[in-house]
Amino acid sequence: MGAAVDNTQKLTVVFVPSTTYLEKQHLTYLGPFLIPEQDMSYWKAILVLLAVLLLMAVAGAFWWQRAAHMSKKTLDTSHHSPLPANAQSQQE
User: Fold this and answer.
1) DSSP character at residue 7
2) pTM
């Protein structure tokens, strides 16, 4: 090998014993799913975000129904006299 440095026309081949690279991936459970351990915080944040959005959607739907019911109730009573029924009969 030492002569290979002196002669630039020669090709030197070096054999090195090797094994295939096996990356050990640590998996963890998130519900029924196995996910990589380093992605756990990301998926937990996504699940929290989805839960908050779901709660906001349910609260929004409840508020929407209540607002629609209240506006309908207001429209139904707006054409009536503000006086009670017995006071109206006394005026006539």
Assistant:
1) -
2) 0.50
Cα dist from 57 to 32, 44, 49, 86, whole Å: 26, 20, 12, 45
What pLDDT does 23 receive? 81
Query: What is the rounded average pLDDT for all residues in the chain?
Result: 80
DSSP lists the bridge partners of residue 33 as 30
- pLDDT above 90 covers what percent of the chain? 38
> What span, in angstroms and rounded, lies between the C-alpha atoms of 32 and 30?
6
CA distance 31 to 82: 59
How far apart CA 18 and CA 41 sit, in angstroms, is: 36
